[in-house]
């Protein structure tokens, strides 16, 4: 049996790319020191800085976001580094494991994974510690579909004298994400979520204070695929003429096209589109008679909607059925949330009027096929009502 491509990929990322981005990925594979490629790479750096609204250095690291996150953990950590890791989900947990592996003394504030971080709890922890070198957190916890109040927490951490790192992989393009304004030293993002680019690159902002900390860290990797300092010294400070290693020429063209599309539409308009798609999806899910995974709707993210699995429903079986019978690919839960929820993605081109309606209808029909009672008509109507309400495109 041959497996067909899905008609709709409404997942937690990678996100379907636009025809323009796909065409850019298929451009001639030129020499990385060709002047055209050098300028393309510099242009992508400038455009990524605009997306972040930052005047700090931007590093475009080859390798998916996990490579960037690990590079940050290694570059800032040595035995004795005191880190406060704020855990609200799977990715933050993972970051804490790296910090420990590279020698940091890690304190964690962990909330149940259906809740968001609480700035007051962070403030208490900061004031009772005698020194905190690094505070790390995830802006949008994609596995749980939850947004953390990073804009409130980061200034507290900076005021306490800590460096601040935020994983903005799935929030950039879907929510306001403002490293400079919020006091974030290192923000990590990636193209394959709300920006709708290809997976394979990490986009980081690095403040001067973070560079100083890396230079002072004898454990910070050098002459390594994970070295941020190599990029700083060879590429940025060397006049942007020499790469530490060959970037993926195809990826850079694709990511640039994806960033161009976001900037041309306008970052605020793109965020508003994600916000509406998320609201339509949540209305549809609740209209079906299901429960959202986040404990309250106000902390739900704009990138994916996590839906609690009704008891007795096997998530893997549900998703396979929805894909095979209705041609819609949805996402399972990830890590320890795997058997608790399913996720409907609405990022990039999927943050449109009708994609949420398709996701809600497919989820509802799949559950009904498995014998779970849902109100498909009510779910579809609720999603359509939000989709139609404010769509001025
Ligand atoms: C997607 C994502 C990453 C990168 O992880 P992959 O699953 O390898 O794509 C990291 N952090 C967050 C918050 C993400 O959403």
Give a verbal description of the structure:
- This protein has 393 residues and is α/β, with parallel strands linked by helices.
- The chain folds into two domains: 245 residues, Aspartate Aminotransferase, domain 2 (3-Layer(aba) Sandwich), CATH 3.40.640; 126 residues, Aspartate Aminotransferase, domain 1 (Alpha-Beta Complex), CATH 3.90.1150.10.
- 43% of the residues lie in helices and 15% in strands.
- The chain is built from 14 helices and 14 strands.
- The protein has a seven-stranded mixed β-sheet with strand order 2-10-9-8-5-3-4, sandwiched between helices. A three-stranded antiparallel β-sheet has the order 11-14-13, with helices on one face.
- The radius of gyration is 21 Å and the shape is globular.
- The model has no long low-confidence stretch (mean pLDDT 96).
- It binds pyridoxal-5'-phosphate.
- Pyridoxal-5'-phosphate binds next to helix 3.
